[in-house]
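Lecture notes, continued. The same structure-token format from the folding unit now serves as the input rather than the output. Read the line below as a description of shape only.
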């Protein structure tokens, strides 16, 4: 039986998905680098394992295929500083499987994140992305995200390796109340 493209599920990744997640990150970094964009030097595998263990890493699946992975946090004081008031969820490390580009996967991530944020009583969905990549900033703004500011992260050991000394654009989406 063929699986419809609309039968997407967002569920937690598991330890068994770890190698697939690393492969997705490495593949995305390679592609972005070839396209001339700034990319991470490496992915912090310890942080990924911790996110999986703590139920903060998710995947979009259709059938047996992982189409996208992403992490969430409930606070992000090292990047969002004084704005981190416990009223937002933070999307991190969103990686689309290149085999499934064009399936509007970020739309699915965002719909899930907004609903999840509402159930937790949060006011915002926040994220950061490459400060130098105007195209990706504009892409996220097309979903309703508001540009907040540019920020240069520190070298703090509490940040994942790939997020240290990084120029980022901070983006925020207000959650509409019922």
């Amino acid at each position: 039986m063929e699986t419809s493209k609309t039968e997407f599920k967002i569920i937690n990744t598991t330890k068994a998905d770890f190698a697939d997640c690393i492969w997705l990150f490495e593949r995305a970094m390679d592609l972005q680098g070839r396209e001339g964009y700034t990319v991470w030097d490496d992915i912090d595998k310890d942080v990924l394992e911790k996110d999986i263990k703590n139920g903060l890493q998710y995947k979009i699946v259709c059938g047996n295929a992982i189409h996208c992975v992403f992490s969430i946090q409930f606070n992000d004081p090292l990047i969002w500083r004084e704005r981190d008031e416990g009223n937002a969820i933070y999307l991190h490390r969103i990686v689309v499987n290149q085999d499934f580009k064009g399936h509007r996967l970020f739309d699915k991530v965002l719909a899930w994140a907004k609903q999840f944020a509402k159930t937790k009583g949060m006011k915002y969905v926040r994220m950061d992305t490459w400060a130098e990549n105007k195209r990706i900033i504009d892409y996220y703004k097309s979903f309703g995200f508001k540009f907040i500011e540019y920020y240069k992260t520190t070298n703090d050991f509490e940040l994942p390796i790939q997020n240290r000394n990084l120029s980022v654009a901070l983006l925020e989406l207000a959650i509409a109340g019922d």
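Point for the exam: The chain has one domain: 9-174.
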